[in-house]
Amino acid sequence: MTRSSLRTLRRSAPVAAGLLSAVLLAAGPAGSAATALQAVPSPSPPGSPGSDLVSVAAVSAADAWAVGYANVGTTTFQGAPLAEHFDGTRWSITATAPVPAGDDVRLALVAFRGASDGWAVGTDASPATGNALSVIEHFDGTSWTRLPSPAGEPFRARLASVTAVSATDAWAVGSGGNTPLIEHWNGSTWSIVPGPAVSGHLYSITALSGSHRGRLMSPRAERRRCAHCDADGRSRSVRGGAPRFLGESALVRAVIARRQIIVQVVRFFL
Questions:
Q1: Residues 210, 183: contact at Cβ < 8 Å?
Q2: Residue 179: domain span
């Protein structure tokens, strides 16, 4: 996989979200005559010159969510969080939590455990300070609320993925600079979980409960580094020597299985 192909994959994310929303319509109510994917119109915020939906999650055929960001800047691009809901017939914009004036705030992923338990994460960049914090919003069945980011996040923190096992057990991953970032929700607060001593970016996480085991899937790579740590953050092992990387981190998967966080960093020679 080349650097250019990775950029192509990243640019295709909004398209993928659109395709998934189309699938929801095609697989709609029983007896529907739809047999193929269909383009489903989605609204844009009034006054915005453009918007991007980058993630979608479905609770049912009549309850789905998509998140991303809209451009609300006047002279330069300034992102504002965007959430849209599908009721089985049409998409509509749903208000997200307020954000600090002037900040560039973008949602990166949405995940729902049920109709009244949804999470959306992303980043909140402040042009005034040059720093960024994570964005963590929760939907309780009625409205979106932003929860405080945990203290001690790395410089320019961003969350790229979130998943929930229960109302008191959710996980989010991302990065700060070139430092992996893992955060956990215990039902009342989010906290940082110390990760393995590797550099890179976490892009995706899946949580499994009970006795189910997770399996990591990754494309063929010339070099890998794997690290395991318990959910309390205690490092268990790091496999693989210090590689000579010619390219940057291309893919990271984090899977929680039996209360263990398994982080796999895949790097490509480009």
A1: no
A2: 3-267
